[in-house]
Amino acid sequence: MAVHGSAMEAAGRYDRTRALNAFKFSDTAFYWTTRVSAILVLVLLGGIIVSLIVGAWPAIMEFGSAFLTTQRWAPSADPPVLGALSPLYGTILTSVIAMTIAIPVGIGIAIFLTELCPLWARRPIGMAVELLAGIPSIIYGMWGFFVLGPFLANTVQPFFIDLFAGVPILGSIFGGPPSYLSLFNASLILAIMVLPFITAISRDVFATVPPVLKEAAYGVGCTTWEVVRHVVLPYTRVGVIGGVMLALGRALGETMAVTFIIGNSFRISPSIFAPGTTISAAIASEFAESDGLHQSSLMLLGLLLFVLTFVVLAAARLMLLRLEKKAGK
Amino acid sequence: MSFIKAIVAAGLVAASASAFSLPARAADITGAGATFPFPVYSKWADAYKKETGNSVNYQSIGSGAGIKQILAKTVTFGATDAPLKADKLDKDGLLQWPMVMGAIVPVVNVEGVTPGELVLSGELLGDIYLGKVTRWDDPAIAKLNPKLKLPSAPIAVVHRSDGSGTSFNFTNYLSKVNAEWKSKVGEGTAVEWPAGVGAKGNEGVSGNVGQTKNSIGYVEYAYAKQNKLTYAALINKAGKIVQPTVASFQAAAGNADWAHAPGYYVILTDQPGEASWPITAATFILMHKEPIDKTASAEAIKFFKWSFEKGGKMAEDLDYIPMPDQVLKQIEKTWTSEIKS
């Protein structure tokens, strides 16, 4: 500013338009640089979608909508029979179980950290949560394989299997035999992996609640639970849902850790202790060695995952819009 | 601090030394493909570089990917465990020959069973992988192993999750010895596994079997040996119980009829002979008959020739089986007659 100011003074008042034009130029340049950057995102996204569709086209032509309802995955059969049902089922089921565990725990940690935790413990716990986000996914996979898997198979799963034996529905959901590599193991690892996303974002948005609101609530005799339930959560709803969606996106697409521990089996079993597969695990396992229709089907799986993520995010947006309308904003 | 400095200094010295000591060299040879022969190829490349100064860069990305890379002409040679048929070779102007042989062994993790103690037949192995025989105390297993006390526990079946030449040879064997396997599943680098869990790579399967009680899997022999896994003995085509040893692998390899196979298309599973190990496999090299980069191609042939002449011992150290001498002569003839330089 100072430079421009002195330049204008030196030029005299009749050069005012020229000086303004110089501003105008830099302004336009700035406008276009940012605009191009923003458009670049759309172009990239479009490019990815187009290349996925092009790659998947032979499989779309061959299988059509049957791809979504076929459970068989037989790339070496003649002709090959390929269907997405099993990886779709695995993707959705593991994500749902992971979110069921991670949402309450993640928000719980965030509430504890912002509302209840003694000051000296906040930093260590907060940092531990952030470190959890920094661990590479392959490390989670190895840990799931060598530590969590055996523990689940030898201790947790036999307990559940005994507990629910003979009960209809639950009996088959928790049916045996226990396995190191299972949908349940993968779901649990996913829950741990997405936990920091939910916690860190929730904690940050909880911290934005104006103290005066909380103090007012405490002032009229609210308990901590009531303050959290009726002041903090409604105030930060949008942010918390954003964090949950980010976590869900990660859970749907997580590849390496899941490939390690899900068992990579294309059979759908009623039991969550049975091995299964997800879209990303199937692609990661088979892409390098695939060709022709097999590869095209894997591309189609990728496209499905893209669509699935898109639908989930769009649904979240809609839900938020509705909530905001209800709140009268 | 001085420790870190010392490491940095040592690194710099090593880097500069290697930069200066490199002789003026010919084109770099690049190859890609099968993971099954990776240990022996990398050992050969290492020794070859020490001796000649020429480097061979081999990436073990899987047989199917190796075929794709050589078709796309991005590498000097491709490598595959599932050989291409002669008409396919002709169509793409490719040349194929076997480089080295190895064996696939069933591995198990059953308490109290020592290596080589458990006896399985090909048909039984097929039934286990079909999910028909599901428990270790199944009468069909007990019949072959009257002296073994096997646990009353479900069998945890482990197979490859990625497409693989090892799976191709394993499923090819099961198709030959188990009719139901042939009709229901068939052979291929990636098949529709009727039972079990999938693990990635030979190392994934050996890790999984090592980790899981009462499990069964199949790996390249070197992986079973390195991971000290319990392998099973098999009943071969002649009806004899054979142990996986270099001698039994060689017996199977010796029975193969390389001379009369167009494009060296020979699959070594279920070979005749009293001492033959039934799941033996060769791994193949693919090159263009009319290469774009003729220097690199000639260099690669030099490397393969060197490996055939001097690499036999190194291969045996890693439990691979070198190609027999008469086959080598035939392959060398193929090189001179078919590759244009």
Overall description:
Chain B: Part of the ABC transporter complex PstSACB involved in phosphate import. Chain B: This is Phosphate-binding protein PstS. Chain B: One of its GO terms (cellular component) is ATP-binding cassette (ABC) transporter complex. The complex is a heterodimer of chains A (about 325) and B (about 350). Chain A is an all-alpha fold. Chain A contains 13 helices and two strands. The model of chain A has no long low-confidence stretch (mean pLDDT about 90). In chain B, about 45% of the residues lie in helices and about 20% in strands. Chain B contains 14 helices and twelve strands. In chain B, strands 1, 2, 3, 4, 6, 7, 8, 9 and 12 form a nine-stranded mixed β-sheet that branches. In chain B, strands 5-10-11 form a three-stranded mixed β-sheet. In chain B, α5 packs across α7 (about 165-175). The relative contact order of chain B is 0.18. Classes of the chains: A mainly alpha (about 325), B alpha/beta (about 350). Chains A and B meet through β1 and α6 of A and α3, β7 and α9 of B.
Observed structural traits:
A: 329 residues; 1% strand; B: 341 residues; alpha/beta; D-Maltodextrin-Binding Protein, domain 2; 2 domains; nine-stranded mixed sheet; 14 helices; 18% strand; Phosphate-bind_PstS (chain B); phosphate ion binding (chain B)
Give the secondary structure arrangement, pairings included.
The complex is a heterodimer of chains A (329) and B (341).
Chain A: H1 2-11, H2 16-63, H3 66-69, E1 73-74, E2 81-82, H4 85-116, H5 119-134, H6 137-164, H7 170-173, H8 183-206, H9 211-219, H10 224-253, H11 256-261, H12 279-286, H13 292-327
Antiparallel strand pairs in A: 1-2
Chain B: H1 2-21, E1 29-33, H2 38-52, E2 56-60, H3 63-71, E3 77-80, H4 86-92, E4 94-109, E5 119-121, H5 122-130, H6 139-144, E6 156-160, H7 165-177, H8 179-184, E7 197-199, H9 201-211, E8 215-220, H10 221-226, E9 230-231, E10 233-235, E11 241-242, H11 246-254, E12 280-288, H12 294-310, H13 312-317, H14 325-338
Parallel strand pairs in B: 1-2, 1-3, 5-10, 6-7, 6-8
Antiparallel strand pairs in B: 3-12, 4-8, 4-9, 4-12, 10-11
Helix pairs in contact in B: 5-7
